Amino acid sequence: MFVCVECGSSYPNSGFCTEDGGVLAAVGADTLLGKTVGSYRIAQKIGEGGMGAVYRAVHPSIGSRVAIKVLSKECAASPALVERFFGEARAVNLIRHERIVSVLDMAALPDGQPYIVMELLEGEALSATLARHNALPLGTVVTLFAELLDALSAAHDKGIVHRDLKPDNVFLTKSGHVKVVDFGIAKLRPDMGGLSEATRTGSLMGTPFYMAPEQAAGMPVDQRADLYAAGVILFEVTTGQRPFKVGTLYELLKAHVEQMPPQPSSLRPDIPPPLDDVLLHALQKDANFRYQSAREFAQALSYASSALPPDSFVPVASLISGGSPLAGGARHVPPAPSPPHAVPYGLPTPISLGNPLDKTTPTTDAPAPKKKRRFGYFAMGTCGLIVLATLGSCVACFGMSLFHEDKSIEVALGDGEVAVIKPGKFDPTAFASRAASAAQKQDSAAKFVGFRASGHFVTGHMDLTRSATAQVSYAYTTPTGCLEVDVSGTGLSTRRTDKCSTATAPMPRCSLKEVWEGAQDRGAPGPWRDAVLHYFADDQGKGQWRLDVDGGTYTGPDTC
């Protein structure tokens, strides 16, 4: 048996559909392909996960297309999971908001498998956009989050907490707008039928990377848990990384409860202070110190956007791939032909960013080849959405990957502020803003004049643990003299000095990786052992780099 992937018509042999010319795909073991479900005919499977599958379906008479999410037979045997599955339809229809995916119908197949009929979206998940671009333009982020927070505000006004907000569940349409999907574990008010085994105190539900501290601790949650998750996503799309990089699930949950993330501008120097403040405020451990509503969060973000340059407001639609068919966290099932940009809604998936330096003293005849490094990851089964509650015979496990990173240490900046560094993978340019914070706590009038980093360098970082003398010294001029902030493999310290430059420098724009690549292009040997990298202001007050390695000197402007 073969089925047309466009209209779902069945044929005994392979070939093309006589009605619309669509390619015919073999049905195989999937008994739903070509069958009529409600008013629609199943044409193609577009995703699947631990709880079921999502299909594209077509109305035979009028040609309208929808997505149909079907709960698996195993999970359909659990009343609690069936309740949660249909709870998504109830939640979405209570909200009725243009930025939340629409649910059109819900029912059950003749064998009892529940299904939901939903609008068919075209575009891709934010996670797919983020995987391709790593970090997004800051103005684009503000535009995107205005719509996301608008959707959350509508849900919270109805007493509904999403509880599993993550980039997989934030869908970007081809026109560049946000659609929030997968309210499958949404918490409803008790009068909406929201009290169940899945919402009791002590259960742990959601995706660990985006869990609010109270959610990670299995405590009751309200709308502020969604705002924390939104803060984690905001951190990720602006910096290109999640707030916490740890090796185990236990360490991740503990970090959510106890550890503040690094200052975003230490990871991306073009983040202005107002946006720094918004991010850190959204990620406060105590829910009472976070934003109390999505509207308050949106207002703060709007205010911070005034510090962004106009060219950072890149249209969302321009960042979306024309060929990504998935969102909502499903594992892609490749079809025979190229499918439309359909999206499975909320099925789980494994979690899956210049100018060269001028060479003034040659040391080699040819550029050293660039080496790309691959970072492996430790996959912990397939549990991205974890449900540590009694949910009957079908406890769904979804994909999660935790990346192994070098050991981190906390360093005190003063006045209770703490920063996290990885001595084995340290980027002195990214840490410049945190060092400035430490200097200004010593003297509020301290002005940055540059830094000197000495030690062992590799592609995108330096290793402060290779040598007892490896160190980065950030220099500042003050009305009473000079101040230095020193970072080594054992921590951070500040000290007064007698002499320093008075030519203040802007914060560095180039990352260490960009400096590395520029120097490699000009022939600097690598890795740089016992090298010294200087950053300072030139005669015009602009940032300048100088690398001293193996008897050669390489200089260039900070114009990445």
Please characterize this protein's 3D structure.
- This protein is α+β, with helices and mostly antiparallel strands.
- It is built from twelve helices and 27 strands.
- Strands 14, 20, 21, 22, 23, 24, 25, 26 and 27 form a nine-stranded antiparallel sheet that branches.
- α9 runs antiparallel to α10 (294-304).
- It is elongated.
- The protein starts with a strand and ends with a strand.
Helices and strands in order:
Elements: E1 2-4, E2 10-11, E3 24-26, E4 36-37, E5 40-49, E6 52-58, E7 65-71, H1 73-76, H2 79-95, E8 103-108, E9 114-119, E10 123-125, H3 126-133, H4 138-157, E11 170-173, E12 178-180, E13 205-206, H5 213-216, H6 223-239, H7 249-258, H8 264-267, H9 273-282, H10 294-304, E14 358-359, E15 378-379, E16 386-387, E17 401-402, E18 409-414, E19 417-421, H11 432-442, E20 447-457, E21 462-463, E22 471-478, E23 481-488, E24 491-497, H12 512-521, E25 528-537, E26 543-549, E27 552-557
Antiparallel strand pairs: 1-2, 1-3, 4-5, 5-6, 6-7, 7-9, 8-9, 10-11, 11-12, 13-16, 14-27, 15-17, 18-19, 20-21, 20-22, 20-25, 22-23, 23-24, 25-26, 26-27
Helix pairs in contact: 4-6, 4-10, 6-9, 9-10
